[in-house]
Amino acid sequence: MKRLFFIAILGILVFPSYALGQRSQSAKKYVKQGIQSFSRGDIAGAIAYYDRALSIDPKLAAAYLNRGKARRAGGDLDGAIADFETVWELEPGLAANNRDVAQAYLNRGYIRSNHLDLDGALSDFDRAIGFDPSDADAYFKRGRAFLIEGNVKFAIADFDKSISLDDRNPLVYAERGLARQTEGKTDEAQKDFERGLKLNHDLRLMLDMHLLDLQMQMKEMRRRQAAFQKNIA
Q1: Burial category of 116 from C-beta neighbours within 10 Å (exposed 0-12, middle 13-18, buried 19 and up)
Q2: How far apart are CA 192 and CA 215, in angstroms?
Q3: Residue 76's CATH number
Q4: Does residue 154 lie within any of the structural domains?
Q5: Mapped to the 3 state alphabet, what secondary structure does 186-209 carry?
Q6: Are residues 92 and 104 in the same domain?
Q7: Residue at a domain's end among 62, 96, 130
Q8: CA-wise closest residue to 174 among 204, 216, 136, 134
Q9: Does residue 132 sit in the same domain as residue 183?
Q10: What are the b/e assignments for 80-112, b being 16+ CB within 10 Å?
Q11: Could you report the per-residue pLDDT of 75-111, keeping only the tens digit for each?
Q12: Both 132 and 223 in a single domain?
């Protein structure tokens, strides 16, 4: 009788662990199937597999990470970032120094910057740099946002950092030249413009159009800032 009671208690203790292990393996199987679907270009199918995995194991960081990648590929940046934030909470090591995670923030930040949502853009660029501190493009785009905002010193610091990581982007030199020109440093600005033009194989029109677009954004931002100050005065 005692033996039967001991076996019954043992079963109660062991079975939940066994069932939990089975559920974990099943969830990981769906993640694997999702990765296979994603590799074939089936984004919707991949997301469906990741959803199934998370319905079984809501704390499976790998499922959130891969669903975030798929959502980003499908253009759902907000959804991707929500997944990546969950990964950061559950298993920070998976998100740290992860280019896929950083790129989601970088892409959304650039969209926000172009819509002059500079607070949102700068927040996204900060997160992108936090996840991938060696991404030259993140410093470049954050520098651009600072320049539009009117924070020239911060802009130049980010352009400098971007160039230190990758000195082959002509647009960084062009924008740093504009920032230096804004500060009245015409000689340094001219050197940057010349360097950018050389890197762009002397194709001036593209750089001129790029700077014109940037100047229009800067002008619109000044107008909005002036209107805001007028309203609170």
Answers
A1: middle
A2: 17
A3: 1.25.40.10
A4: yes
A5: HHHHHHHHHHHHHHCCCCHHHHHH
A6: no
A7: 96
A8: 204
A9: yes
A10: bbebbebbbebbeeebeebebbbbbbbbbbbeb
A11: 999 999 999 999 999 999 999 888 899 999 999 999 9
A12: yes
- Identify whether residues 196 and 129 lie together within a single domain: yes
**Cα dist from 25 to 55, 61, 126, 155, 197, whole Å:** 13, 14, 36, 49, 56
**Nearest Cα residue to 162 out of 175, 178, 150:** 175
The single-letter code of the amino acid at 37 is S
Could you give the CA distance from residue 60 to residue 178 in angstroms, rounded to a whole number? 47
CA distance 185 to 55: 59
C-alpha distances (whole Å) from 50 to each of 17, 99, 137, 230 are: 23, 20, 30, 51
- Please give the structure tokens belonging to residue 198: 């050389």
The packing angle between helices 170-182 and 186-199, to 10°, is: 160
Domain boundary among 80, 96, 112: 96
d(CA 232, CA 211): 32
d(CA 114, CA 4): 72
Q: For residue 85, which amino acid is it? A: E
DSSP state of 8: H
CB contact at 8 A, 89 and 121? no
**For the whole model, what pTM was predicted?**
0.85
Query: What is d(CA 36, CA 53) in angstroms, rounded to the nearest whole number?
Result: 14
Confidence band for 13, pLDDT divided at 50, 70 and 90: very low
